[in-house]
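In response to a reviewer's request, we include the raw inputs and outputs for one of the modeled complexes. The two entities were modeled together in a single run.
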Amino acid sequence: MVEIMANGLARRTLVALVENKPGVLARIASLFRRRGINIASLAVGASEQQDLSRMTFVAEGDPSTVGHIAKHLDKLIEVVDVSDISDQNVVWRELAMVRVKATPDSRPRVIQLANIFRVSIVDVGAEAVTMEITGDTEKIDSMITLMQEFGVEQVMRTGRVAMLRSALSQGGEDGAYSEQQISNIVARAGLDSGSV
Amino acid sequence: MMIKTGGQIVCDALIREGVEVVFGLPGGAILPLYSTLGSYPELRHVLVRHEEGASLAADGYARASGNVGVCMATSGPGATNLITGLATAMMDSAPVVAITGQVGRAAIGSDAFQETDITGATLPVTKHNYLVMDTRDLAATIKEAFHIARSGRPGPVLIDIPRDVQAGEIEFDEAEWDKPVSLRGYNPPTVAEESEVATAAALINEAERPVILAGHGVIISRAYDELRELAENAQIPVVTTMLGISAFPEDHVLSTGFPGMHGMAYASLALDQADLIVNIGGRFDDRITGDTKRFAPNAKKIHIDIDPAELGKNIKVEAPVMGDVRHVLGQLNPQVNKTTHTKWIQHVEQLKADHPSLKIRETDELLGQHVVKAVSDATKGDALVVSGVGQHQMWAAQHYQFKNANSWFSSGGAGTMGYEVPAAMGAQLAHPDKEVWTFAGDGGIQMTLSEFATIAENNLPVKIAILNNNMLGMITQWQDMVFDKNFYANTYTGNPDFVKLADAYGIKALRVTNQDEMEGAIRAARAHDGPFIIDFMIYADENVFPMIPSGQSVAQLIEENL
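The model returned the following structure tokens for the whole complex.
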């Protein structure tokens, strides 16, 4: 999905397979900067192939420039493969850790809200709890907004990781899921619809 | 197995890559390599006076020869001085390999004497670069670097080698040379998808007013015959880009000049009125398109390019064709119908007649245009021609009538003033037997005239024509026409006497102040067996026409009042 933001800039999601060598990230960052594109989020980690890392970028910029960035990235010698998956059927997630003020009085409500959002509490202190949220950007955003009532002390987000869906047969002809299919899947998996 | 130093491996590798000439200037961090270089007489080292001269000469050598140009410099300021030449090569797709010395491995990152992070600094102006941290990696790295520089869309590659890696001794296995280059992330295309070619052929076959826009890619892939076959077969007028000049003979009846900001009016108008533009190895640069929304609005576009990132980058194209120009034209030509386009050709001929962009106004003054035309006539369009950047560059591009393929070398994308002298050096070394003329401005020549010494030392018979108006001519023109005559920092009141300066370098020179002296001076320069400088004192109050101001369209075309 290409997101067009309020300021007219476009947001696209790209996945790249890159050689795991020193300086690769600098090359990529230099390219984004040179073409006037902002990296809204970046997640890097080992891939299933030795010596190759996989990166997920959320790139933000002028719609025509940002639509072209995958081709520029692909020209970098150490970028083995890159796809702009914005228009494709992907599943994507982001992880956030949020430390929220929680006094003995407010703690039950904080935990109750966390449970509704299927968020795990990973640390409980005398004055705060830390929760781990996995989902899409909107889910994490709304969770953080909700928690502001109690006081958000610190937020740490990973940025988006994305993968093409393999189960195309479950989708329609264009690979997209209908509303009905989505709600079925949500019900089956017991998921919050915001996270699909 | 034998023991070899890093320096020996570098020299062996260069010879294996077919390198004959290296432009460089030594310094502390590259001395281990230089201590080896002297024992390799196969490698001619041309000692420049400034490293920018080395990288620009390597660029000129590369363009003129079609082989990789090589330059060398030391760490720190030596390496940073190369950058302008690398940016020039990057923008115009010239294959260059730069080898720089670096401080010893242990000192990297410590802000050591003459330490600069040159791989970091050259990220945006190289196709790729390397910091080699192990002598054992040198052979494979250099092989890879040359492969990347010359294949696909060519470009500059920099190899940074710490001094202890150059000095390091290893047991070297000669079988190392035979290992093939394998790069998972780099597979430049050659042939195009048949479906893309078929789409392009269909568009050409149904077009009524087609124009070919031939770019630098035609020259890089040496597709002159294929281009000519396409043009003649389907009778399509050929406009070249400024860097595409000499891809198509200019005395050919289908030759229609170059378009854009200072191109021929009839070339810009032909593109504007076309119903199909076949862009072959060009990149729809802003100097050609002006306002992209108003560029050739009624034309469908075919874009043939080896670089997928160029397809659709600046202009929306109906038929992108990704592949090497020569291969693609080889696929395309058999599918293009033989036809005449008589009405359209007649119309383009009428445009040429109605818009005589190359007509020089009547005057007794000595104009830059006169000089270029006189050199063109004297050399019968056979010389290799280099230029700097500015008014003289546009006059050279307009008024020299190029007969031979790949005979025009100019910094198009980067617009590097100072290109003229070092690049001419490179072109002359690539073709020792050919006549090389370089047109220079009095501004640009002062940026790299330290290379007069290199030219004199090597007795390179380059003919340097300075079109001297004692000012930055193009700056003056823009201040005149675009900035409301707000002239500032445009005149050079302290120019040296270039004839005396040439004499100081031991280079023969003449000054020409009027039209009558022009031909005699050109004859003297051509007759002299060695470098020659002519200081042409041209009329200063002259603007380059035609002109389409930046970001405008043919609707704003300004033609000279003849």
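As requested, we also summarize the result in words. The interface with chain A takes residues 119-120, 123-124, 127-128, 131, 148, 183-186, 307-309, 311-313 of chain B (CB under 8 Å). The radius of gyration of chain B is 24 Å.
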